[in-house]
Specification:
Elements: H1 3-16, H2 25-50, H3 58-75, H4 80-102, H5 109-127, E1 144-145, E2 148-149, H6 153-175, H7 178-184, H8 190-195, H9 200-226, H10 236-249, H11 254-278, H12 285-300, H13 305-312, E3 342-351, E4 354-364, E5 369-373, H14 380-387, E6 395-400, E7 403-404, H15 410-416, E8 418-420, H16 433-438, H17 449-453, H18 458-474, H19 490-502, E9 508-512, H20 520-535, E10 539-543, H21 547-553, E11 556-561, E12 564-569, H22 571-576, H23 578-585
Parallel strand pairs: 5-10, 5-11, 8-9, 9-10
Antiparallel strand pairs: 1-2, 3-4, 3-6, 6-7, 11-12
């Protein structure tokens, strides 16, 4: 079943629900509240489930949207429809200010900071005179179209759910794009994302703003639904509840936010309505039972109720394979120099008193496969990180195609034509092979977030996916293109990383233990591919522990031991070098 058809069916169901004969007004109110909560939860799905940024403060952005329209419509007489852009802009500006500080944090500091500013801003709402202090702002005008006023739950129902469905479509469009893949790559850390050109700071801020604007939209609708705005709905408890909604529904799934809102809102109402009758109104047992039931739901469906339900369906959402005939323009690059392509001169990296790379020098020529070998802890991966900008050298120089790159950002280095794989595989396991590989072509696309949400990026997206599909076929994994990356074997995942690196269209390919986990025939196919790349004009620098693989493939070999270069030469010379034999065998040759 296609995603568009599923959305159409859902929209028709929501349109028909209020028309069912005998539908109690109370249930219409519940559906309105579900829609308002779903808007906030969708933002949290993108922020927390996709972007990996946990926030307990989203209720505050609802407050910004609600108070903005309340002030403008009651004190300045503006039409509620004219206050909508203002509510979204105020929420967005607040997100920029708070996000610049918040998204820089990591670990437990990030959610703690959202709690801190959530409590602080809630306090401001309740103390500022022009916002009505604790009494809030009353007599907020209703939404109105012509002479039709949306005065009750039934009349505003369609406005709320129009915005819910439109927001879901825009969010899904964003995720299904170059920008969305960059955001989704953040879940595996910033190193892999930055290695392929994703501006991780901007991506985090973008998703923070998107979530805040959706919450601001919910607040705007809430103000004209309740016709009054007070601080209580925008406190810390509401922020925690919104996060619970996203987790219960499925943090990472847009429709999980809608389902989670339905589960939590209905469950709360049912418990508050019936438990006092059962137990004679003693205590607030509904809060205790509500908490127990939510914990039970999370235990039964750790990934959320939405993916659990989707897994039970007899049909699956279908996806169309890219048209590989669509060409992606080659990136503009400087011409390869007459001398070495990459030159490392006296590179040193110290971590406190430990010297990981000790004044290492070597170069990589054009159309050359150079192997960097040595025992565990020799400094090979650290050298890779110096070349690709992940680590800054303590001293020394690194030049590529005649340009110094020792202090360049990873995105800049990638744009120059250097691409890499990782010692420990860094794929997003719940993204398909095609989506993971397409991240490698990130810098070769141009469409931004707004174009993605409005579906104006289709030509650009088709070219990026076609390039990714070609590279997947090139490395021999065409039959795995629609599989989730996490379902592949370790060896196959390493090959997927190579395909992703090739999407950069690099001049220099850095491979960190590419043959680890591969069977004999797979190693042979990989060696053939690397020779083809070399013969096609690409240079390869690889770290590898399989000496048979290295000796059969490399044109030259550089040997490191305890961060120091101890030998350099052809495979035949390295095999006979006494220093190399001593380093590997631990004795005198």
């Amino acid at each position: 079943m296609s995603q568009r058809f599923s959305i159409l069916i859902f929209a028709l169901i929501m349109a028909v629900l209020p028309l069912i004969p005998g539908m109690p007004p109370y249930w219409i109110v519940l559906l309105d509240n579900i829609g308002l909560a779903a808007l906030v939860a969708m933002g949290l799905v993108l922020l927390t489930g996709v972007g990996g940024l946990t926030s307990f403060g989203q209720a505050v952005f609802c407050g910004f949207g609600a108070y903005t329209t309340a002030v403008l419509s009651t004190q300045y007489g503006l039409s509620p429809w004219l206050t909508l852009p203002a509510s979204l802009v105020v929420s967005g500006i607040a997100a920029v200010i708070l996000g610049i500080v918040t998204v820089r944090l990591s670990g437990h500091y990030l959610p703690l900071s959202t709690i801190a500013w959530g409590i602080g801003i809630y306090y401001l709402f309740s103390k500022l005179e022009f916002l009505g202090r604790n009494d809030g702002i009353g007599r907020v005008p209703p939404l109105q179209i012509g002479s039709y006023q949306m005065l009750d739950a039934g009349s505003i129902y369609y406005a709320i759910w129009f915005f819910v469905i439109a927001s879901a479509i825009l969010t899904l469009n964003l995720l299904d794009s170059r920008t969305g893949r960059g955001i989704r790559a953040l879940r595996r850390g910033h190193i892999a994302a930055e290695a392929f050109g994703v501006a991780t700071g901007w991506a985090k801020l973008l998703v923070f703003i998107h979530a805040a604007v959706l919450a601001g939209l919910s607040g705007w609708l809430y103000a004209h639904f309740q016709r009054a705005v007070m601080p209580t709905p925008f406190g810390a408890q509401a922020g925690i509840e919104y996060l619970f909604i996203a987790v219960v529904g499925g943090a990472g799934y847009v429709w999980g936010g809608v389902l989670g809102a339905a589960i939590v809102v209905i469950l709360k109402e049912v418990l508050q309505g019936y438990l006092p009758l059962i137990f004679g109104g003693q205590g607030q047992l509904e809060i205790i039972v509500f908490g127990i039931m939510l914990v039970a739901l999370v235990q039964l469906a750790p990934g959320g109720v939405w993916p659990w339900l989707v897994g039970l369906l007899p049909f699956k959402t279908t996806s169309q394979r890219p048209d590989t005939s669509v060409a992606l323009a080659a990136p503009a690059r400087a011409a390869a120099p007459a001398g070495p392509l990459l030159r490392i001169d006296n590179a040193r990296k110290q971590f406190g008193g430990v010297t990981a790379v000790n004044d290492v020098s070597f170069d990589v020529g054009a159309r050359e496969i150079l192997a960097l070998i040595g025992p565990n802890g020799a400094g090979k991966s650290t050298t890779f990180n110096l070349i690709t900008g992940v680590l800054k050298a303590t001293s020394g120089t690194v030049t590529f195609a005649g340009q110094p790159i020792i202090d360049a950002a990873p995105q800049t280095i990638t744009q120059l034509g250097i691409s890499r794989t990782f010692q420990h595989v860094k794929l997003v396991p719940d993204m398909t092979v095609l989506e993971n590989v397409a991240i490698g072509a990130h810098l070769r696309g141009r469409s931004g977030a707004i174009a993605s949400m409005l579906r104006l990026d289709r030509a650009d997206e088709a070219a990026l996916l076609a390039e990714a599909a070609r590279q997947i076929e090139r490395v021999g994994l065409g039959d795995q293109i629609d599989h989730l990356a996490g379902s592949l074997s370790l060896g196959q995942q390493r090959i997927v990383e190579i395909a992703r690196a090739l999407c950069v269209n690099p001049m220099l390919l850095l491979l960190d233990e590419p043959a680890a986990g591969l069977r004999h025939m797979e190693k042979q196919r990989l060696a053939t591919l690397l020779r083809q790349l070399r013969d096609g004009g690409m240079s390869v620098l690889l770290v590898e522990h399989d000496m048979g693989f290295v000796m059969d493939l490399a044109d030259r070999i550089v040997v490191l031991d305890f961060g120091t270069r101890i030998a350099e030469g052809t495979p035949q010379a390295i095999m006979k070098n006494p220093d190399v034999i001593k380093a590997y065998l631990g004795g005198v040759a």
